[in-house]
Amino acid sequence: MRPLTYLRPTDVREAVETIASAQNAKFLGGGTNLVDLIRRDVERPDTVVDITALPLHEVTELADGTLRIGALVRNSHLAAHPLVRTRYPVLTQAILMGASGQLRNMATVGGNLLQRTRCHYFYDTAAACNKREPGTGCAALTGYARNHAILGTSEHCIATHPSDMSVALTALDATVEVESTRGQRRIPIADFHVPPGTTPQVETTLSGDELVTAVEIPPLPAARNSRYRKVRDRASYAFALVSVAAALRVEHDHITEVRLSLGGVATHPWRAARAEEALRGAPATEASFRAAAEAELAAATPQPDNAFKVELARRTITATLRTLTQS
Ligand code: SF4
User: Fold this and answer.
1) What is the rounded radius of gyration, in angstroms, for the C-alpha atoms of the chain?
2) Given the CA of residue 143, which atom of ligand 1 is nearest to it?
3) Cβ < 6 Å from ligand 1: which residues?
4) What is the distance, to the nearest Å, from the Cα of residue 251 to the centroid of all Cα atoms in its chain?
5) Ligand 1 center to residue 42 CA distance, Å?
6) Where a domain ends, among 55, 74, 101?
7) Ligand 1 center to residue 158 CA distance, Å?
8) Best substitution site from 42, 130, 154, 306 to test ligand 1's pocket, by max atoms within 8 Å of Cβ?
9) How far is the CA of 143 from the centre of ligand 1 (A)?
10) Which helix (H) or strand (E) holds 211?
């Protein structure tokens, strides 16, 4: 373990000024990912700025019905919140299907958005990994890639984004609020995570000195009929092979509103825009669901080890949408 400086500011201004003036510093929330990465020598900060004393622990409803979630709200608290359970069941389900009870009690909303891939080569400091050490190569491309991505990949990285919560927030068109010494800005979640391209070490549009302070979800009546379905190797405490977050409104047997995003198959939380386009106005039938899934997966670029995810994703999308027509 390398020595590091530990700081614990008590307000947001102090926190962003601290990170702006410190060399090679990281914010620390629940610590459920960063501490592991430091122990494994993957992350090597000289300074850790513990933000858990900041006043960012509240879930509040704004006047227009928007749900505002402080960045330090614990995952378990958010999943259990009555407004989330009734208005956005897909979010409650996604969170409860992630990690374990103990981890959800520690993990924060901001940290969940920023958690890093669980690609085993990323954690193995003896392996080539462009995300950990840019320019060294990608061991997964020639190694074992069963859990890796089939959408949004590049020749430099095929790692999946691990978050379940972020997949649901993507379907719900959440907005991420961030703050730095330059002021505040708001980032639509669709613009928050970025595909690896030629720089897989860059995972978001966040600058190193910006702090996530809140996430906001707009009022979405269709989200009351929503679901998160996760396919994984065991029933709990496992990352997704494929996951689907979906919300559906059907009138006169036709789809009038649909929101669909995928996890476990892509390098970032994946809004299934092609499938949504195919479904809008279509009859709410098995054939429509399957055709939409086909349209979305047409761009898949699987490896031999994870080619099964293409059909698994088609089936999971179809099954999730079918369930929403029965509820
Ligand atoms: Fe690293 Fe990405 Fe390749 Fe995994 S898939 S070894 S994270 S570059």
Assistant:
1) 20
2) 6
3) 117, 119, 121-122, 129-131, 138-140, 157-159, 200
4) 31
5) 13
6) 55
7) 6
8) 130
9) 10
10) strand 211-217
Residue 264 near residue 302, CB atoms below 8 Å: no
Determine the length of the chain. 327
d(CA 129, CA 115): 17
The mean predicted confidence, pLDDT, of the chain is 97
Q: How far is the CA of 119 from the centre of ligand 1 (A)?
A: 6
Locate the ligand 1 atom nearest the alpha carbon of residue 145 and give its number: 5
* pLDDT value, residue 2: 87
CATH code of the domain containing 297: 3.30.390.50
Question: Into how many domains does the chain fold?
Answer: 2
**Interval 40-46 mean pLDDT:** 97
Q: Average pLDDT, stretch 19-30?
A: 96
Structure confidence at residue 126 (pLDDT) = 98
pTM score of the predicted model: 0.98
Cα–Cα distance between 300 and 239 in angstroms, integer? 20
Assess if residue 295 is contained within a domain.
yes
Distance (Å) from CA 155 to ligand 1 centroid = 10
Of ligand 1's listed atoms, the one at least distance from the Cα of 139 is: 6
Tens of pLDDT, residue by residue over 110-166, are: 999 999 999 999 999 999 999 999 999 999 999 999 999 999 999 999 999 999 999
- The CATH number of residue 49's host domain is 3.30.43.10
Kindly report, residue by residue over 217-245, the tens digit of the pLDDT.
999 999 999 999 999 999 999 999 999 99
Split at pLDDT 50, 70, 90, the class of 327 is low
Out of 37, 55, 73, pick the residue that ends a domain.
55
Residue 159 lies in a domain: no
Q: Which domain holds residue 48?
A: 1-55
Check residue 45 and give its pLDDT: 97
Residue 288 counted as domain residue: yes
Beta bridge partners of 49: 7, 27
Report d(CA 149, CA 158) in Å as an integer. 5
| 285 domain-assigned | yes
